[in-house]
Each structure stands twice: as structure tokens, then as C-alpha cells.
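Problem 12. The chain below contains 369 residues. Write out its predicted structure in C-alpha cell notation.
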Amino acid sequence: MDNKNIDSENNSFFSRGCCKTPKMFENSETVFRHGCSKLDDFDWLETMKPLNKFDEFDCIEVRFKNSRKCFFRKTPEMELVVGDIVAVEASPGHDVGFVTLTGEATRLQMKKKFIDPKSENIKKVYRRARMTDIEKWIAAVEIEDKTMFETRKIASKLNLEMKFNDIEYQGDKTKAIFYYTAEDRVDFRELIKLLAEEFKVRIEMKQIGVRQEASRIGGIGSCGRELCCSTWHTNFKSVTTNFARTQQLSLNPQKLAGQCGKLKCCLNYEYDNYAEALDKFPNTEIILKSKKGEGIYQKMDVFKELMWYSYISEPSCTLIIPLENVKKIIKMNSRSKFPDKLEDFEYVKETKIDFQDAVEQGDLTRFDK
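Solution.
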């Protein structure tokens, strides 16, 4: 089996941002490249370097598996760049990951996540990864899939209502994080004992939600693109059916639900624009009065600023009235003035004049007769 087949089968390295399975004798530049990671960072302050290297920000961002990123403190003597494989402090032992941010961009990222750069809780960068570190790291990553399958078998024998969807080994192969989802609270004390005996590592159980599960598994959304949560989206905000109502969407659970079974995160994207545009519209319960009859609201086009009304006596006949004219009618009604009919304020569609050739073109078969 050649290297290409090996790389295509081992997705554990791809989830860490590797373009291929790392080798102990290769340079990190051939392993880590921008675009290989699902949640890559762009350092827009890369060209702004401090005059003195001792003035450089002493914290860096290190990426591990999937979306797990942490900040670590380095010494001024360490010259690290994005893409370097480093050994960092862990509890216990050490972990191995890729440097994703350095310099001022790291300072801004820590400020965004409300992390104090001067805090003593920030762990340290030990060194640029050695051959032995990378060797242990590769050995640990290669057994992650096998460990997950065995864990599912053990949990099934114990009749535990929990689903394991990912496992992450620490770089020194002394600890493993087991990510799982469960609807109810699960007593997994017996499971931890069996896992520790089976895999000879320290076990850490971490429960995640269905949105985080979908981001780790990945997939294709109804839009035809890869899931946002598995490519760039990290901050999951609560989504309610009110977001769909505001955007004039039908409350169809099959269309509004994503792969995770929850409401789609993309309902948040345009909500603010709709909420701002709807402030211009009057209350839809207001009835438009005219001498011909009273008009009741049917629907609206938010961004075209059009509203559909129909007479109470003729509910099947709808009239498209621009928002500006609707406000005029409401203002007239407030002064006890009633227009003759609502059709006078109806939206008039502009007719486009098709291009006409100055030279009249005849039928191709005109000479056949």
C-alpha cells in the first residue's frame, strides 16, 4: 500500500490540520499548510513585526484535534512560526500540536476570549517537537479510531445510553479524551475502570452537544455546501423559531432542522437584517379602510417593501401595495379620510422594453414557398 492510500485512510491527522501523515524525518512545512485545516487562522498582522524580538508577545495559539485550541506562553529565546510542531505543557505530561497564531494576533484573540495574558494559569511551551515527541505523537494518533470502536463495544456491553463520536489522544500517549453525547445523565464509573485497564491511559470523559457532534463528524448541508460548523463556525448561539418567523419562513421542521436535528445555525445569519427592515413596517393588524371596502393584511416582501392586502368581501383577490402607499392610507384613515378604492395605490410593475433590431429579420423559410 502506497503513502497516498495510507493518508486517505487516516483522517485523524487531517482533523489536526495535516495535509498528510507526518513523518519523523520531514519538515513541518510539508505537513502543515493553510487550507488543510477545517478551522484555519489568518494572521492579518503578520507583516507587523516588533523592532526588538524581546518586545514580541510571549503567548502563542496552538491547535490540536478538530476545534480544540489553547494558548501557551513561550520564552523570548524561542523563535516559533505558524506551522511549527511544538511540545507543550499538559496535565499530566506533555501534548503535541501546531502553532496557529503568533504575535499581536494572539493578543487580540486572547482579548476576544477574555483571557488575561498575565495570568499564571497559562501553560508553557516546552520546546519545538523532537523526533521522539513526533514518534510518540504519530503512534498515539494512529490508534484513535481503533480505540473508539473498542470503546463503543465496551459501552454496549454495559448497556450505557451514550454515543462516542470522537477520541483524542494526548501527544505523549498517557491520556485520552473521550467525547460523547447522551440524552440523560450516565453513570460511567465502571466504564472508566474498564477503559483504563484496556488502553493503559488516563481517561477523561467530555460530554458535548449535538451541534458539536455534527461539527466533528462533518457532512453536506441542504444548501449543497459542507457544514458551517465543520468548516469555520465555532461560536454556537441559540436558535429559536422566532428567527424563522421574522424571516417569513414556513415553520416546517424538516426544512428548518440541520443535520444535528436542531434548528439550522444559518437562521442567525440574516436575522439582524430582517429585524432592522421590519421596523419600517406598520402593524399588520391594522385594517386599510376605503369607500369600496376594508383591506386586511396577507403577507409581505420585506426587502422589496411590498405588502399584500385583500378586501374582506373578496379574500381571494389580493392587491400588492408598496410600503410607502400603505403608510399614506393609514395616515389618511387616522384623519377619518377614506380613498375611493385600494387599487389606486396598487404596485405598478415596470415594463421592460425588449431590444428591437432596426433591420427587420424575416423567417428563414420565407424563400421555401
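Discussion. Residues 213-276 form one domain. Students who got a different answer should revisit the alignment rule from Section 12.3.
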